[in-house]
């Protein structure tokens, strides 16, 4: 198995899973780069996995279905192009691969992640839920849902690899450094972020540099209280305050 990021729109990644049985792509917002890559390598597309309904994640599906008539599209009930509806806990199989569907709302109310197990390691295609150093904005979901989705991620093994759909790492790390100016791991990651792609990233790495995974730490809470001017009672309120601060950073 090989996983390749196909750039789109300047800061999107369409993730392409290549196997000896065929290919799967995740969140093709633009068909052109995906078709170009597959034609260049004389390959077909067999499955499309969609994380959520925003156009920059599904806008290329119609053209891909025309180019590859055999392709099957997997998505939640709010994805009109999906011909294979999915739900939380469902298992998807493709050849020797198996992936579990997780509902991870927050960014949107019906956001999906795909947890692919391969060679004793998890590969999580997390769309716009978790970014390296950050998290997605809240649109049709709620901050409580996004917090709960992060708590669910925190239960995964440290070596889990996350594949976000955007190259937002450097911008997120500048905010993270604003929250934790004395964190050497953030400074090192910010230096490394000059080279792209910065993804995928391990959960262990994100635990060290992502403020939205560090809301349990007293100094993060104190910093969020200082910057927001609000007394914060629990991890959820810290998470919410950080998201509000990031919105205007």
Describe this structure in words.
Helices cover 33% and strands 25% of the residues. The chain contains nine helices and 14 strands. The model has no long low-confidence stretch (mean pLDDT 97). The strands form three sheets. The chain has a six-stranded mixed beta sheet, covered by helices on one side. The chain has a single domain (2-247), classed as Metallo-beta-lactamase, Chain A. The chain is globular, with a radius of gyration of 18 Å. The chain has helices spanning 31-40, 55-58, 61-67, 143-153, 169-179, 184-192, 203-209, 218-228, 235-247; strands at residues 2-8, 12-18, 23-26, 47-49, 72-75, 84-85, 91-94, 97-103, 112-118, 121-127, 130-131, 134-135, 161-164, 201-202. With 249 residues, it is α/β, with parallel strands linked by helices. Helix 1 (31-40) links the parallel strand 3 and strand 4. Helix 5 (169-179) packs antiparallel against helix 6 (184-192).
Structural class: alpha/beta
**Poorly predicted sequence stretches spanning 5 or more consecutive residues:** none
- Amount of beta strand: 15-25%
CATH class: Alpha Beta
Strand arrangement in the largest pleated sheet: 1-2-3-4-5-6
Shape: globular
Walk me through the topology.
Blueprint: E1 2-8, E2 12-18, E3 23-26, H1 31-40, E4 47-49, H2 55-58, H3 61-67, E5 72-75, E6 84-85, E7 91-94, E8 97-103, E9 112-118, E10 121-127, E11 130-131, E12 134-135, H4 143-153, E13 161-164, H5 169-179, H6 184-192, E14 201-202, H7 203-209, H8 218-228, H9 235-247
Parallel strand pairs: 3-4, 4-5, 5-6, 10-13
Antiparallel strand pairs: 1-2, 2-3, 7-8, 8-9, 9-10, 11-12, 13-14
């Amino acid at each position: 198995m090989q996983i390749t990021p196909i750039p789109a729109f300047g800061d999107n990644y369409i993730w392409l899973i290549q196997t000896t049985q065929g290919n799967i792509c995740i969140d093709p917002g633009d068909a052109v780069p995906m078709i170009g890559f597959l034609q260049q390598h004389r390959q077909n597309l067999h499955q499309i996995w969609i994380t959520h309904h925003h156009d920059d994640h599904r806008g290329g599906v119609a053209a891909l279905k025309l180019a590859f008539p055999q392709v099957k599209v997997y998505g939640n009930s709010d994805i009109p192009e999906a011909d294979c509806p999915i739900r939380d806990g469902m298992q998807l199989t493709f050849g020797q691969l198996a992936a579990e569907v997780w509902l991870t709302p927050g960014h949107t109310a019906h956001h999906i992640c795909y947890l692919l197990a391969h060679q004793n390691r998890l590969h999580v295609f997390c769309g716009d839920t978790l970014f390296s150093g950050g998290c997605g904005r809240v649109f049709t979901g709620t901050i409580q849902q996004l917090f709960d989705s992060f708590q669910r991620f925190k239960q995964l093994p440290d070596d889990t690899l996350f594949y976000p759909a955007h190259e937002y790492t450097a911008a997120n790390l500048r905010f993270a450094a604003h929250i934790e100016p004395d964190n050497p791991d953030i400074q090192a990651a910010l230096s490394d972020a000059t080279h792209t792609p910065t993804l995928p990233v391990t959960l262990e790495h994100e635990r060290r540099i992502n403020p939205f995974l560090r809301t349990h730490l007293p100094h993060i809470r104190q910093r969020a209280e200082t910057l927001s001017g609000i007394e914060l009672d629990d991890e959820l309120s810290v998470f919410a305050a950080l998201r509000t601060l990031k919105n205007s950073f």
